[in-house]
Amino acid sequence: MDYDNLLTFLLDKPDIEASSQHYNNSDVIAVTFLAGEQEVTLFHFLEEEFSALPTFHLFQASKFGQLAHVLPVEGDLGWICVNQQDSVSVNFECPELAFYESIRRHIKLLTQLICDSEFNKMELLREFQSSWNQQISFLLDKKETISKLFCALSSHKVTELTLLKPKNMQGFILQQSHVSLSSDKEESLELFFDCNGRKELKDSFAVSIPLGSISPFMKNGFDGMKEWLFESLQTVSPDVKKRLQSTLYHWRRKEFWLILSFMTPSGVAWIGICLISKTKKHFPRTLEKSTQWKVKPFSLELFNQELILPRSGANLTLISKKVVLVGCGSVGCEVAHKLASAGIGNLTLIDPDTYTTSNLYRHRLEHHYLGLNKAHAIADQLYLQFPWLKCSSLPPTFYKNSTLLNLRTPELLNNYDLIIIAIGSPTHERLFHNYLSQLSSPPSVIYTWLEGYGIGGHAVLDVGTSSGCLRCAYVDPETGKRGLASNLNFFKPDQNIVKNYAGCGEMYIPYGAIHSTQTAVMASDLAVRYLEGKITESKKVSWKGEEHDALEQGIELSPRFEIFNSSLKKLPLHHPLCDCCNREKGITFYHNNTTLIISNSVYERILTFKQTQDEDLESAGLLIGYQKSSDTIWVDRITEPKRTDIRKRCSFKLDAKAHQKEVDNAFEQSEQLLGYIGTWHTHPEPIPTPSSIDNIDWKTHTKDNPDRQLFFIIAGTTQLVVYSLISGKLVQLAQLKQEET
Q: Is the pLDDT of residue 185 over 70?
């Protein structure tokens, strides 16, 4: 690092007084400025290179009193926490700019802290817990160790705690730490903390105490900490004081472990202080009575749902959700783990298979689970990692036949908020869906699978109360009828994808852990968003991989693979040609061999724009639909007037870009099924007739779209009419009477 060049750069800055100095046998860059009437000096100890924003120490820190974001270090220096180092890209090729920016941040912060005592106090409170944890390491002698306590406590009230010793000082962090549990301790927490074999800490008492309005100022040293403690204990409420009479003040002990909580601008802060005596004594109620007690802070790690789940990225609201997962293979095991890590509180696993060596490289289970049932093994593994998860597997008696088909009982289905199926068996999935479609209130289901050779994976969310179902994913894109292969697949149907390793019992679909994990993450995200209420309608989602490995094996790709460019986008599942969920009737208009059907919902929506009042303005939009058969077009939806359209009593100019965007979205989300098929608008007359402007406009639209038959709807005050240009002539389509349909 060229500090000579840096110093030259700083000397040219009129707002900074910088110099090169020597401090305690170290070379430093000193920066001096005024904070109010006080002179402040910062030291930067020279570094070989900048890998982050430069740091500074406050010289003679004690003369400024206790400042937020300033931690004491050796000598009379204070280390200043001002630069957020994460996610910061430093221009190391021009370090003087980084240096100057860091100086400006330090000057701004310290000036506020020194000149504004209220701001300093609020910052001390806001950062209390963080600065506490950093300061206690400075207070202790280097030979002393800081005891670490994991405290399973969920309430902000006086609570007696069972205090357990470390289990193995040579083991992992949990085994090396103390543990405290409340009297209503959960079995899962005892298992998580490996409490079996731990011994209670003799002659000790642990209690949590909610403090009142504390002072953020604390003198250096243990005497200052003790003084702060007894001042803070005087702030407790009368109810807390009464509870302490029968808990803390009742016992004679050598050690009192205090878990203190109090409100700060950042939320509830939790810290730990231990009072230690050589002999058993009652807890000293005042500072004057504590002369024979030694105070020692300990590192406190609070362990409860409200803190751990959100801090870990989980959603606390999902703790009440119940999910059943059918299939615990390479995809299913990842789904189970992702759901647990998202905060799902109740997970039931179903799979009859055992874990074998052939699963090792694409499964989450460890080697010691070999030979065990997959569902049972995963439940055991998750139970150990996620202490508030209730994870179980169904008993072996459930696995008489197909595990999925055994779920076809309302008693089982009604227990769950969501069913996830990861078995890769289309026949069983369709049989299961056929059963669900006959229920009055079917549950929501996610079906997920992946294809071999890294070509891709898919997930379908079938929400029983919305349009779109599993059968929508089986409508043949060429015939419009329901097929046997999913229309989401990237491989053409009726191909041999599996590999044969050593006979019929050793066939498998080639894919790796990356592919199964990507599919599972995609399906899990769909599940979590549904359970959070962020998705309420049926959706489909796919990821698309590379085709090279598949083509080398001579496998043919489906047309969808060629056109698909919406990886990981959650698209509507509903397919207009699905014979299961698309049962909406429509109004039919025809002329010779040309037929247009307007769905009832679209027909009624257009009529809401009728110009029945003198002040009503003209409305217009585009028709979006699809070809239902060779001579029949179905209007599926319309675009409606926009704020950016120009509307008058007898004219209308639509914002072409805004309306076209809706058409494009429908085209993309339906994977090229839906498209533009004409226009609609209103007239302030009972039986509308086309104007000369309409005729010109329609001819232009038809000329610009020679590849499709367009239709033009006019809604009058009493009648709706449909026109089309057929063989170059404008004709009106006749409406089919309702009894004729």
A: no
